[in-house]
Design goal:
The protein is an alpha+beta fold and 396 residues long. The chain is 40% helix and 23% strand. It contains 11 helices and 13 strands. The protein has a 6-stranded mixed beta sheet with strand order 5-4-6-3-1-13, with helices on both faces. A 4-stranded antiparallel beta sheet has the order 10-11-9-12. The longest helix is centred in the C-terminal third of the chain and has 25 residues, at 272-296. The model has no long low-confidence stretch (mean pLDDT 95). The structure holds 2-deoxy-2-fluoro-alpha-D-galactopyranose. 2-deoxy-2-fluoro-alpha-D-galactopyranose (GAF) binds at residues 38, 42-43, 45-46, 138, 180-181, 183-184, 345-346.
Amino acid sequence: MASSVCTLNELLKKTVDAFKNEYGIDPEIAGIAPGRVNLIGEHTDYNEGFVFPMALPMVTIILGKKTDFNKCRILTLNERADKPLKVEFALPDADTSLQVSKPNWANYIKGVIHYFEGQKVGFDAVILSNVPLGAGLSSSAALEVSMYTFLEGLTDHKTDSKKKALLCQKAEHMFAMVPCGLMDQLIAIYGEESCATLIDCRCLDITNIKIPESDCIFLIINSNVRHELASSEYSVRRQTCEEVAKKLKKKSLRNITLAELNKLNSSDAINDKAYRRARHVITENERTLQATKALKNNSLVEFGNLMYESHDSLSQDYEVSCEEIDFLVKLARESPGVYGSRMTGGGFGGCTVTLIEKSFVDSLIKKVQDCYTKRADFYIVSPSSGARVVYLNKYA
Ligand code: GAF
């Protein structure tokens, strides 16, 4: 059976109760932001390319209340910890600034407070999330964007949405030391019910495309593996792409055609690995645009085939998949009712996303449970809304 995602109201209620229990008062404001699943367009965002994600019904909630002290007190009900975790730090003044320190999760929050455009205020808060952590479903951006949204609610300061995404990304670069692209922050803000979102990461054009009604759904399968090299290899991929673009005197791979890349390759100016990395990015951009058109035209067979091609390119050319994820995609590929399947997110573990006819979901789940030797989790997901502020009087 697929895990049922608890409703937003249930999650909010749980977070409100935890806040009252911890601080003995009622919370006033909640900032909410979703995780995401990327349907196609992987490792293209930091190459100024195209991505096509959708926001998930799973969200991170940060709720709380402004205080009169220059202090931030935060309790997180992290699903992986056996007991709630707390952090407390002073707000910076004219002579100090927030410092990166342990625990690491708090650095994402400190980074957002540091870059928040509005007035810095002290607060008490509780965080609760049902976005699976470290599973390639963008739990980090959900944390950053929910924090930023919470601060907007507390201070009545509204930042322009694209700027907000960029500031959250900067928080991740500078405080969590992760050189991520911008897809996750943008979709956490711009996600819309019933739609997947085409993002042009060069000019930040955002187009919500309605997913046509059909007998199919998107099924996420969490491999529950996360290989250690994920973060170091991400930086290496990014650097390789930048080097190839530089060799062709271009700002990014977005401006390079396959013919130009092949010419560079035949002059021996790049090695085979760099060639394959760049080929993935260039072809993935093409696939993403084709997939968007296919979805608009309700051509699910074409969309699914592009998902498979994307996976093969990520696995063979970009080399960011792993044995477990390749196995899950292969199982899906061999199963009836499946249109397409691929890894999603940064890679080296995490999740697959599969486009499948509703009536075949149970049999695929059963097959994975029988054949995959580790524990897998399953989520049937539909596209959901982006970040929002909730005023909590009715939950008090
Ligand atoms: C991670 C990054 F955070 C994104 O910016 C993106 O590059 C993705 O990996 C790969 O497409 O989620």
